[in-house]
Design the sequence.
């Protein structure tokens, strides 16, 4: 039917966890270590990592994008958040690993309860941030134990068939997409370095490297990243540390106009040299590895920690990036709407599966002619699979999409002018009254956040209750954040802004975030409604003492009317849906085929009609 291109559905090979854990314990004993803590991370703290950095999956069998494992001599625990508790239970040998919900018991708390006095807990300083290593050190001290940097990583010592590091080609991100020249970005960064009273900034986050130098890469799946470091001095030319095998002559020539191109092996030596001459180096406390701080301080330099100034610059999109996002969402809206029309026709035949749905959606996106990749592995879950927040369908778990179920599809595309992320929940056949009620509660929260008007400087944590209030009133909730930042042809999960209980970054005009409340009934169904929104100037209010902001919804795809219980909605909520659907229809009608146009007309009818 459709050819899958970007996403694999193969079942992960069963991890030989027993022998691997025993081999790790033997290696730890050889080094005089009591245990080892291993996060799912690489040297850059990326969400998506290349196969050569998938140590956590290799050791435990868990393939989620976030987790931590602790291996002691007589016990081991895997810590995952609420997105992954169900997934971990199906992938991990629970006779070896205890699965712990990290939101209820943190690794630090568990270690405090389980580390024996006098223990030496190893950690790889390249895989823990400066702040994380300090927390780990305090935890060990309180338990009468010691945190010990372990280099090289003991897992690498036993991972005999570890894949080679990636060598994806680096490409230039053109001005027509970036909207600002790299030279101008570097000038802004130097100004911030001076304001921070630092001599140099280490850029350890590849997203920031890509944004700063207007480059993209292909070292990891789904995010166009070149794995690289950079050092930007307050004065003088920055240095970009990237494997020369990734650079064509043309790309190297253009980059050399703004930066000194160095090999990755030069990075530690030149960072050490900054310390030797007593320079003050700025590190991002959220992403910089503990190893970087150790290199600077042990060589005689000084480290100042705080937010990387690039993070906020990158999060606030410029006018070219904003217009690109609108174009990408219009294009993506056509693809997803074509898919939903196709889904309605095919699902009624009773033969459609979760994998077939993903293959179809990817095909519709490829039909745009501009898709570079999907922005993450599509989450395609019907019935009970939809209740697994980050469910990843494989050939072994693939279910038929059956009448009477809810089907949840969360997906996105990477286009050079923008990154998309959308979730729609669709009724297959006739939904139950409970499904309609829960869906409408989620929808009410989605609308409340979409319509929010808030003073400039408000954080995501302050807005998060807007999306949960109706679920809370019914004694319900969802165990994930309400929204995350989104990059411009970069990460679909971009910091520092987010809408969650922990989101303390002020929301600024030009930021793009998701609005995705949900509800999940284990073993039955899942519901999530996700649009991307842009922070824009709010309405003019007479007497207002602060500037006001609001959201512009970028996503252009209908919401399933069959799941809406109209009697639960207020006049303003109904009005929001009608206006949104009218906007969707007006934008997409001229761009879709005849069959999709008929479906779209019915899908955007006013509530109560049709």
Sequence:
């Amino acid at each position: 039917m459709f050819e899958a291109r970007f996403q694999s559905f193969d079942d992960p090979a069963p991890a030989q966890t027993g022998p691997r854990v025993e081999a790790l314990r033997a290696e730890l004993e050889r080094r005089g270590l009591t245990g080892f803590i291993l996060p799912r991370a690489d040297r850059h703290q990326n969400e998506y990592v290349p196969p050569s950095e998938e140590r956590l999956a290799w050791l435990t069998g868990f393939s989620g994008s976030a987790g931590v494992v602790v291996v002691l001599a007589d016990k081991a625990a895997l810590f995952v958040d609420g997105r992954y508790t169900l997934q971990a239970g199906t992938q991990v040998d629970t006779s070896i690993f205890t699965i712990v919900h990290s939101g209820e018991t943190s690794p630090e708390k568990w270690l405090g309860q389980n580390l024996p006095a006098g223990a030496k807990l190893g950690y790889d300083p390249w895989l823990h941030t400066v702040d994380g290593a300090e927390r780990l050190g305090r935890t060990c001290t309180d338990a009468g134990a010691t945190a010990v940097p372990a280099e090289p990583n003991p897992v690498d010592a036993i991972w005999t068939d570890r894949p080679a590091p990636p060598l994806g080609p680096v490409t230039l991100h053109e001005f027509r997409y970036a909207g600002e020249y790299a030279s101008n970005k570097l000038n802004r960064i130097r100004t911030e370095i001076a304001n921070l009273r630092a001599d140099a900034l280490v850029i350890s986050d590849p997203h920031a490297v890509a944004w700063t130098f207007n480059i993209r890469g292909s070292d990891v799946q789904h995010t166009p990243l070149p794995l690289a470091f950079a050092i930007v001095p307050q004065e003088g030319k920055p240095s970009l540390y990237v494997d020369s095998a990734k650079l064509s002559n043309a790309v190297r020539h253009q980059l050399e106009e703004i930066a000194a191109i160095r090999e990755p092996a030069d990075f530690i030596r030149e960072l050490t040299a900054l310390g030797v001459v007593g320079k003050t180096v700025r590190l991002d406390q959220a992403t910089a590895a503990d190893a970087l701080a150790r290199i600077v301080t042990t060589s005689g330099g000084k480290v100042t920690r705080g937010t990387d100034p690039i993070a906020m610059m990158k999060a606030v999109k410029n006018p070219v990036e904003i217009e690109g996002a609108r174009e990408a969402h219009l294009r993506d809206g056509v693809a997803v709407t074509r898919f939903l029309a196709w889904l309605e026709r095919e699902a009624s035949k009773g033969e459609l599966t979760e994998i077939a749905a993903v293959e179809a959606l990817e095909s519709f996106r490829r039909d745009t002619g501009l898709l570079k990749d999907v922005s993450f592995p599509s989450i395609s879950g019907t019935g009970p699979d939809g209740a697994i927040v980050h469910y990843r369908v494989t050939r072994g778990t693939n279910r038929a999409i059956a009448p009477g179920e809810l089907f949840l599809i969360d997906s996105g595309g990477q286009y050079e002018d923008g990154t998309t992320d959308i979730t729609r929940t669709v009724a297959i056949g006739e939904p139950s009254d409970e499904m309609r009620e829960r869906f409408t509660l989620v929808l009410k929260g989605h609308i409340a956040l979409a319509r929010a008007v808030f003073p400039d400087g408000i954080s995501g944590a302050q807005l998060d209750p807007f999306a949960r209030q109706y679920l809370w009133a019914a004694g319900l909730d969802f165990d994930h954040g309400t929204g995350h930042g989104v990059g411009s042809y970069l990460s679909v999960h971009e910091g520092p802004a987010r809408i969650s209980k922990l989101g303390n970054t002020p929301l600024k005009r030009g930021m793009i975030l998701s609005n995705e409340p949900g509800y999940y009934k284990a073993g039955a169904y899942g519901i999530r409604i996700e649009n991307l929104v842009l922070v824009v100037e709010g309405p003019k209010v007479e007497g207002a003492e602060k500037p006001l902001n609001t959201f512009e919804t970028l996503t252009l795809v209908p919401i399933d009317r069959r799941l809406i219980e109209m009697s639960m909605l207020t006049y303003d909520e109904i009005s929001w849906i009608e206006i949104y659907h009218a906007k969707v229809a007006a934008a997409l009608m001229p761009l879709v085929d005849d069959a999709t146009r008929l479906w779209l007309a019915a899908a955007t009818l006013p509530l109560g009609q049709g």
Remarks:
- The mean pLDDT is 95.
